[in-house]
Structure formats: structure tokens, C-alpha cells
């Protein structure tokens, strides 16, 4: 058994788990955060994306033990307890989700994309950056739209905040 | 239209839980004492089970029980069946082989379930599953449908000689032959409609809970139709009587048809829960989904279309072999027959049509309805043939179609369907305008200067949705009625719950269904809740597939709303001392027309429940139910045009532009309709360019059993889509709506392939048109192909 | 995944020690290939030795002509490194094209090289850049390092600590991805050294893993232009053939990608 001690959405979590426990299993089964989903076995679909120390990773391709000592943010903690995060709001506004299964991973990937690219985001970049997230419902059209809109709104908000 | 009523672009009510990670899917469910299961599956495509030894596995850590097919049979659990009877041309009923939820003697495809292992954790269950010893005697196999029919092919079920399930025909063969004999020109094609894996992002799952104190079962499962699941598991599989079986389909992560059917796993989990005394959960991993979800399509077809000297179609004859896999899934027989051949007239006046369909068993996963189901197969062959005919006849493909359009409605086709409304030319013109059809030659030239081959292709589709009139489908062999039910409960405080037998797994029913109520009573969206997916809550229902939730499900709600409205007006008239006929409902108030007298909606509702002052003889309460059985199918139609550029060096196709002009009748929420088209078109483009499902013909192993080998469309593979809609109202349902869920997947594949064959000037191309396939077609012009399925050809070559 | 034991090493020595005492150990860095393989029960190491907490094995340094990249440097870090983007822009771009953003945040150059997947990107670059692979025991020339599909010159317990190479005059990388897996189906790294010599590393196509296309190297050494490849043809007999691409198609792709890599070289 491995002793895993980490921060999930700002709260300390300490558990003993089998060494082979994946981070996504740990989050879903031991922390009862079921927002991260498991959609494939080959680390390709991205339904499980969370942030570890501020970077988007696939929680199905990391052991819980590897994450020990890290800060993990999941879809449940993205808005920090406040209103919707701008990316969440944009997904709703632009109908960027249908069945909702890929959505948590998609939104966590999107916030990471926006963080890395900021205002330089364009449609082609968003599409390329969604390489690791598969959606079967939306044809991506509205997801791309939502991410671009959220990026421009977040940039606007950041400018206002800076003034 | 109010801001939340019919036609409004209302953001979805259900989104909040999904975007915050609070959706509740089957695998998210945890109940006290719950244990995990893993199925031991056949690694062989066809084999006799010689011996099963689970002794060592049963002693492994955490193992609670390992159960087999004999025990299942001992407990009287029945065979999985196909619920639609098809009769062959000679009048004989279809030859259905036995499908045991856990195989007893013979396994017939890779993935066939043999044992269930229940353990404390999923990892322990998998460890033990690997330790189960099953000895097999391998048998000869066949994976390709045409080869399955050949003399001497391996016999898969004793009931189906030469693996033939049925040999069925629709239309007038003699008249069609005569018409073709008189034709001035005949276009002939060999068409392969490639097998697809549906790939809903949520893998299938089931949680079976047996309560011995009540002798009652609960099943959480990934279903598009929980009531149908309960009905079938009760009536046919003998799991439990309906009153002792509750089926809950909570949030379901996409279906596309694959979650209509009742699979072995939910039956076995329920049964295993009783056998082991613990709640049993099973969740598929992705490869298990690839192996065991019902696949889609898989037709090979010969087409002959005849034209007179003026380019009018005189007749159409098709001969199809449909691969149904190793077992007949729930609606597998209906898909290549009544959902397929009935659409062979397309948008065209065709005086004589004959379709022959032979359905066959092979050692592959069962095939059933997948988004579009039969209609994509019909559309693909028709629209490729029309495009090819235009090229052969030297006329513009758009104009050949236009010339042959049906223009008068109702129109009785020679293949059962009676089209009740449509205007195909409007869609054609809209699509041509949007893509600037006239400017294509210039764009092609410009692309040439960049070394790219540009092509344009179109497709005019019609589909039959809103399945379906119960009496009609009953006469054609359906085992169930295809009505829908609704109940509208007005609570004492005026809030409203709508209980529906439709099931939302991405379609946004919680929003669109509520819009109907907002429109009708002027109440805020927030005061309306849609309840679905639970057989203990919702009266009865037939579920969601075949683009039926709008046309059939909403119509049931409309009927129930009519009844509520009638009673509400009676109560209000009584309270306001007015004539019932003078009561109008507006903005949450019931008003006496032309006066300032009114009673708020909530007060009327309260009155209904206090029952202190109701009209004489009126029952208290305000709750009404309705069942709606449609009078006809609905007929969405449209025109899709695709423009591509092919890189001749690599064979890569890039979709530059995709235009969809649809007629869905009236639209409740345009935002959601657009989303449905986007998703459908993406799946159609996936079929056309990317998605190939390949079994090794020698071993029967699925070679494309994960995303490492099965290409799912990704964001970078797709363009933005340009959509438009026009409206001819469906004349027979109260909303005038037709349905929009499948159109995208139906109309797009031929448009894409027509564009590529136009670009590379070689019509010898099958789906999926992968870069390798296109590159080969480009560099092999005029070359002969002995096998139309390039993939099979490649495998054969690789195997040598 | 089969049961395994996770260890976190804080130094190379400790990592080697844990590995030596394990029945069937494996080193874990980003884990982006190892963990999926374990999840599918295709690999079953008894012990995993996590290297990522060892100091000093991460980062890029450019010192005059010499570029050195620590074994634990992630693909993301390689992609983002400003000095590398100037010294060897094609390599930085290549790193930004591996897998997907989430994989790039975890996957490392050392892990990729030690695994030597026949469709991985880095091996092609290392061959073309005539790189040296540094381990906790020795230095190995790239030409000697890649010994076959998933095979390297690494001995049991040997850890890739860094790679180094001399910056080149020009280099470019182009790949044609397997449409499903998105690994390279033909990935070509073309490099022209400052002495004018040319090395072409090809991944994703070879039956035996990454290889150098010497015919093209010779043609390009005398004429560094895409046109110089017109008369060259890849021998398809040594190429992989699978359901996604026949050997003949792969041979075509290698040539096309080589031309494009030369054209895009900077």
C-alpha cells in the first residue's frame, strides 16, 4: 500500500491505497469526486483531464502515488467555490456539450490551453490543442467556439483587472 | 414565442451539473455493499467450450463468486432475442440462433461472455478473471458477409443454414426489371457501407441490486430506453416480473443507438446480485466496448439505376448482403429492411424499385441500429449512384437531382413510405448558394496552383423518423408498439413536472421539453422539471432513438398539456365566475379575455389541490397523462455539399467547407438542433474518412479494438460547419416537427466521398477514405480491384 | 494493472539501488507509455522506480555550440525553451508535436529514448543530430544506441540522464501521423551539420525501428534541396506494413516527409 498525501481542490487528502491505483481511480473512488471520467484505456480520450501543479494531465496515466505531494484541481474545484469559471460559462452559453461525459476533461484541457496561449489563441490552435480530448456528440464546432469566446472574455477581464 | 418558449435559443437547464462535474452516470453510482465484476470473454471468434475450471480463481483475494452459463440456465434466464420478425420472400420466418447471456457450449465472436467474476475490487476481479481456465476447441470462422453465404462456409448457428438469417425483398421486382430493360442508360455500382463502432464516450455499465427482503431488483444502466429494458428483461429473459424490477438510466454519456439494446451484462449483473447476495457493478473498458457494443452498418450492395433518354430515373434495383454479426441484437433485423429499403426512393420520383436483402451471421460482434440505422446505407448508395450517373451522363449532378425531385406531396413511393411534406429544391438551392457552387471552378484552379486537388460533392437525403405508427410497425413485424407517453404534474404551488418516456443522453430534453410548457403556460423555465430515465417514476415509455423524442415524445407531452390546460381553464373559469371559453393563459396568469379579471397560475394550482372551491363533480388535483401514437413517420430532408482538398503526395483529405441545408419542420430550440447536426455530420465524416472496423479474416480478431487503431474524429480533423434550415411542417403531429438527430450522419458520407472522387477523378473509392486509400486510388487510376474492401485486401496481402 | 510496488528515488544511486533489489523493476519518469502498457496488462514490473524527484536531470542548456537536455525534461519544457528554439528550432517544434498537451506535460525525453518506440519522434532527431546519449554509467552515440524495435544499448539498471549534440547548420522535422494513434507513421528529421554533412533520421516506418536514410543523406549532402530527393527512393522491403499503411505507402510518405523536412529546415 502507498501512503498518498496531496491537495485536492485546496483540501488536504491523505489515504492509503494500492500502489497500482491510478489518480483518476483515487479521485473517483477514494475522494468521491466523479467529475473526471474514464473513457478509454489508451490515454487518448481525455475525459479524465485534471490539473496537477497547475498543468493539465491525464489522471488515468498517472499513479495516485506519483501525485503525492502535488496540488490537484478537478472540474469540481475549477471555479474555486464561486460562480462558474468563464470556460464553464462559455461551454453552456455556446452549447459546447451534449451528453456531458467528455465535458469535465474538455473544460480542464480548455482552461490549460487558454492559460498557455492567452490572446494568441485562434481556431486552428484550439483545434490542434484539443488533440488529446475526444468528443463524440458535438463535432467540436461549439467547443471550439466556446473556448475562443472564453479566452477573449478572460483576456478582457484580465485587462479590466489590471487597470 | 416567449424568451423561453418554442423557437427560442435557450441555454440548457441540464448543463450546470455537467460543466461542474456533478453529472451522475452509472459508473458514478455507489450503493452499500457494492462489489465489482469482470467478464471472462472468449478470445476466439468461434470455438466449442470444452472445459471450465475456476477452482484456483475462486480462492484468489477478494473473490466473491464466479458464475457460469450453466448456472444461468439452471435459474431459467432466457435467450437474448431480436424483437422484430422478418419473413423471407418464401414466407418463412427469419432463422434466429440462440444467444445465451453467458455462453454454455459455443462461443461465436471474440468477446462473447463466458463467465462473470465478482470481487471486492475491479482489479481483484480482473486478476481472478485471468486465472479462470477455459479450454476451447477452435472452429473455422468467417467474418465477411459474402463469404459467410458461400457453400462450405463455417456454420455459425444450427438454425441458420449457410448462415442465412433471411432473404427478404421489398418492391416489385418484375416491374423494376422491365423498367431497367427499357432504360437508355444504366448506372451500376458496387457499394460497401463500412462497419462502424458507435463509441459513445461513456462506456456501457450496469449495476444490479437484488433486495431479498422484497424480492426486488434494481438495475442502473446505460440505456436509451429503460422501460424497454425492463419490459424485455421481464417478458423474454425471465430476470424478474416488471413490478419487481426497477430500471434506472441516470445520466447517460451518449448512445447513438448502441445503448438501445439489452446486452448480456445487465442481465447477468442482476442475476449475479441475487446469486452472490451483493450489488454487482460492471463497467466496460474501452476495448470491451469495441468488442461487444453493437456495431453499425456493414452492408455490401450491388446497385442498378436506369434512366430514360431524358435522364429521368425509370427504375432502381439493389441487392444487399447485411452482416448481422454472431447474434441477432434487439432491432438488428429491422435496420437493413424496413429502415433501409423503404428509403430507396430518396428524394426522387422512381416509378419502380426493388430491394433484396440477405442478412447473414458472421463471427463478429452483433450489428444493430447506429445513428441513422438503415437510412445512411440507403442514402449512401443512392447519392453515390446519382453522382456517378451525372458524371456518366455528362450533366451537372445538382441538375440531375433537381430534375428527378419529387415535387408533389403526399407522395407514395414504391417502397411503402408515403412522404407527407417537403420541398427539396429549397434545400438544394440554399446549399448551393451557401457554398457558392457556381464559383467552384475558380477555387479548383486556385487550389491547383498550390498543388492541391479540390473537389466538390453533394448529397440530397431524406429519412424516415419519429418511429413509428404502432399498428404499421406491428404489421411489419415489430414486437413492440412505438408510441410515447407523458404525464404532466402541476404541483400545488404551480410548479410543473413532466414525466416522459423519452430518454435524454445528450439531446437536451430537460430544456426543450420544458420550453413546450413555458410556451403553453407562460411560466418560468425554472418552475418546470423534466423527469425521465426511471421506471419507478415514469409511467411507461419507449425511449429515445430514430429521432423520435421530438416528433413522438413531445407530441405526447403536447397531448397531456392539452388536458392540463383544459382542466386549468375550467378551474379558473369557476374561480373567476367566467365562461371557460373566455379563459386565456398568458405570462403565468389565467385571464378572462377582454377584462382585467385574472387568477395567477399558482393560485389556480393551489385551488386544484385544496379542492375547497372546484366546479361541481370535478376531481381534485391537476395531473394528466397521455399516450401518443404517430399517424405516420416524419420525413426530414435536406441537401449537404462538401468541398475538399486532397494532398496528392500523401492522399490526405482536408474538408475545406461543409454546408448542411436541412428541413426539420418546426424547431423548438435552434441551438440544440444545430448541435445535433454538428454531431451527426461529424460522425458521417468519421464514417467517410476515418472509421474502419476490421476483423482479421483468418483469426476473427478485431484489429481495430482501441483508439490506437480506430480513428475517432478529433477537433483538428473537422471544419466549422455551415448550417441553414427551411421549414415544411409535418402535417400530422401537433408541433409540425420532424426530428433532427440522425440527419447529419445520414446525409454527409456520400457528400464527402463524392467530393473526393471528384477531386481525384477516380470513382473507385470505398469508405473510409483514409489517406492511404485515397493515395492508392489516385495512383491506381483505372487499375482493377479484386476486392472492393481495400482493408480486407490489405489484410489478405499482409497475411501472406 | 497488475500489482506493483511504487518507489520514489531521490538520487541516481538510490534509483539504481532500488532497481537492483527489485525482482523485475522498471524506471518511471513521465509514464506516458509505461503506464498505459501496464494498464493493459502488457507489462508487469514488480517495482516502479520514480525518477522524477531526482534533482539536476531536468532542463536545457545551450553552451556555445553544445546543446544539452536533461533526461527528465518534459516535452513541454523542450518545446518552450527559448535557448533551444534559437539553437535548434526544429527540435523544439518537434517536442511540441508529440502526443497531446497533457502527454507533453508529463512525458520526458529520457523516457522516450529509453523506450525507443518505433513510432516515437525523439529517436529520429537524435540520429539526425548525431547526438550523444548520457547515462548514469557512460555516454553512447545515437548511432549505437537504437538497436531495434523497443531495443536500446541500455543495460539493466542504466538510466538516461541527458542527451547532447552540436548545433547544426539547418534542420527540419516533418511527420505524417497514424490517423488513429497519432504516433508517427513516417517521421523524418533532416539535419545539415556545419561541416555540410547530412543525416536523415526516419521513425514510424522501419521494420526494425528508427533508421537513417543514407541514400537521401548523400543526395542532400551535395545538394541541400527537396528536389535533390527526386531520384531517391526508399526501399520498402524494410518498412512496416500494417492496417494503416502498407510498406509501399510508407515508403512514399518517408520521401514526401523528407522533402518537406528539408524545405522547412531552419
What do you see in this structure?
- Chain A: GO terms for molecular function: 2 iron, 2 sulfur cluster binding; metal ion binding; oxidoreductase activity.
- Chain A: This is Carbon monoxide dehydrogenase.
- Chain A: Keywords: 2Fe-2S, Iron, Iron-sulfur, Metal-binding, Oxidoreductase.
- Chain A is an alpha+beta fold and 163 residues long.
- Chain A is 37% helix and 15% strand.
- A 5-stranded mixed beta sheet of chain A has the order 2-1-5-3-4, sandwiched between helices.
- In chain A, helix 3 packs across helix 5.
- The N and C termini of chain A lie far apart (51 Å).
- The model of chain A has no long low-confidence stretch (mean pLDDT 96).
- Chain B is an alpha+beta fold.
- In chain B, the strands form 7 sheets. In chain B, strands 3-5-1-12-9-10-11 form a 7-stranded mixed beta sheet.
- The N and C termini of chain B lie far apart (66 Å).
- Chain C has 266 residues and is α+β, with helices and mostly antiparallel strands.
- Chain C folds into 3 domains: 5-50, Uridine Diphospho-n-acetylenolpyruvylglucosamine Reductase, domain 2, CATH 3.30.43; 60-166, Uridine Diphospho-n-acetylenolpyruvylglucosamine Reductase, domain 3 (2-Layer Sandwich), CATH 3.30.465; 170-264, 2-Layer Sandwich (Enolase-like, domain 1).
- In chain C, strands 4-5-10-6-7 form a 5-stranded antiparallel beta sheet. A 4-stranded antiparallel beta sheet of chain C has the order 11-12-13-14, with helices on both faces. A 3-stranded parallel beta sheet of chain C has the order 1-3-2, with helices on one face.
- The longest helix of chain C is centred in the last third of the chain and has 18 residues, at 247-264.
- Chain C is globular.
- The termini of chain C are far apart.
- Chain A binds chain C through residues 2, 18-20, 22, 41-44, 46, 49, 55-58, 60-63, 65-66, 109, 112-113, 116, 129, 131-133, and chain C through 1-6, 8, 28, 31-32, 35-36, 38-40, 48, 50, 52, 76, 99-103, 105-106, 181-182.
